[in-house]
Every structure is written in C-alpha cells, then in structure tokens.
Amino acid sequence: MEINSFVVRRAVDSDAAAVAEVWLRSFTAALPGVRRAHTDDQVRSWFREVVVPGLETWVATVDGAVVGMMVLDGDDLDQLYLDPAWRGRGMGDRLVEVAKRRRPAGLALWTFQINEPARRFYERHGFIPTECTDGHRNEEGEPDIRYQWRPEK
Asked: What is the C-alpha to C-alpha distance for residues 113 and 133, in angstroms, rounded to an integer?
C-alpha cells in the first residue's frame, strides 16, 4: 500500500466512529490475550461522547481515511493506536512528534507490560519506565507500566 496523502490533524466530531474502529482493530490485533473491560458498542459510545469532543484527539489519515489515532489528556499520552495494516510506516512516529510538540515540558503514559512492541516503540522515542504495577488500577486488571518522557536539557 502506497501512502498517497498522509495527514496528521485534530479530530473532529465526525471522526469519532472511525477513531473507535481503529482503536478496536488495533487493540484486538495487538493485545489478543487481554480481556477488554468494555463492549465494542461501549467503546464506540465513549469515543463519540467523551473522547473526541472532550479531549485533545488527533488522527492520522491516508487519502482521507482514519488509520491512526492519539489522545492527549493533560500531560498524558492517553491513547495511541494504529490500524494494524498501517503499522511500521512512520505514522506512530509522527503522532509522537505531535505529542512532544504539544507537551514540550514532558509526557507520561501507561501501557500493558505484555505489549512488548509498544514498549519498544516508546523506549525508542525516549520514554523511560518509571513504575510497574500488577494492574490493580486499570479496568482490565492487566499488569502495566508507566513511562515518562522529558525533553533533554
């Protein structure tokens, strides 16, 4: 698949359904052994009613179609998911660059310990692990890890 027109932009309300579908496909592909805490319809509703209208949501699009999404919530990089067919093409890199520009003082995020590809990705982008938990604070009950990025002085 050739990338004809790859764009990163702020999400608008009409993107909510596509954002939710990217999240669902990506989560299913990347984390098949992790129990999801919410149904597909609950996830779609959450993106439509809470995330896209209320949080700083960004999308990566190819020829107008949403293929990646990122959510910033305060200083947290709260969500970053790519359609599985579009992983490894630099879109995640571009989304992290946007996040760092938007939060130049630093960022933090959580990911599941089992998600080795995500951990390698974030570490490659200068995030360092700062805390590991047994998952008692997340809805999935899955052991997780906190990462932080601070700009070099």
From this structure: 9
Domain boundaries, the chain: 6-149
Residues of the chain with pLDDT > 90: what percent? 90
With H, G, I as helix, E, B as strand and everything else as coil, classify residue 130: strand
Q: Identify the CATH number of the domain defined by range 6-149.
A: 3.40.630.30
Q: How far is Cα 115 from Cα 99, in angstroms, rounded to an integer?
A: 20
Query: To which H or E segment does residue 110 belong?
Result: strand 107-112
Alpha-carbon distances, residue 118 vs 11, 13, 42, 147, 148 (angstroms): 23, 27, 24, 11, 14
The sign of the CA dihedral 77, 82, 86, 87 is positive
pTM over 0.85: yes
